[in-house]
Amino acid sequence: MKKVKVFAPGTVANIGCGFDVMGLTLDGVGDVVAVTLYDDKDEFDRHASASGNAFVSTACTVSVKNNSKEKLPETAAKNVVTPAVSAMAEAFLEKSGSKEALYMEIEIIDKIRPGSGIGSSAASSAAAVYALNHLLGHPFSEVKLVDFAMEGERLISGTAHADNVGPAILGGIVFIRGYNPTDLIKLPVPDDFYCTVVHPHITVSTKEARDILPANVSRKDAIRQWGNVGGFVAGLLLDDMELLGRSVEDVIAEPYRKKFIPGYDALKSRLLEAGMLGVNIAGSGPSVFALSKSADMAEKGRKIMASHFSDQGVGFETYLTQIGMTGARIV
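That's the Homoserine kinase sequence above. Prediction below.
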């Protein structure tokens, strides 16, 4: 058997304006996943401690063991890591010409709280495919790993999107120019660029947050959103933090998703008045993020966030990090 342990970071998807096409990496916040690849079925049956919940296909057998503090699905078939590694197993057998199925156990060691809005499902999927790719001898590129990890997003939300798994694997700030094929661009990150996130203890499923969105948007809103995406990318390229901050505006999802977050408008106003560059909903929510250009300003934002949800009587965690430059990695 072969085993490796991988950390994959949490992420902030959309970054306000970039719905499904942009995400950034948080530094030091994420999931730790161990993958054991067995030589054959007999070895798997002897050693895989969670084999009783295994998912079985022609390409692989996958068991998932949860040793984290979070409650996760009890069967492998319902865990986001399974469709991700299953897709990789199918591609590996086709690429290698082998007819021997893969047998593996995936152990979730540390876990971002599910439904937090900072890429909880993406981090596990990203870590699992990164680990399996290492155990198989690196047959796939990072972009292909993103494709595989997106299958976990499809399971949890109904849609395969890369705005979380992209930065979870590549690190930094990632722009997804398009899908089919997946076209990823890693954007430059300014020095002293910070992200503060508050996660209120409110569960909002990704599917629920996607279902609340309108099926169509007006031309006016579409044009405004395109302008903000362009402004954000230009702000990074020109190192123009004020332009970047002005562009963290979302007219597509924020007006609908903010209803899940107690006192969202008041919180956003307080943070912007305090000097944050931009404020918006992290991914599908309920987490809220604020971008700033110094550690002191980021800490100021954290205190405002903590005060807001304390006043609301809602439990919460806060995270204050620089933008993480490294994605999934062996630990």
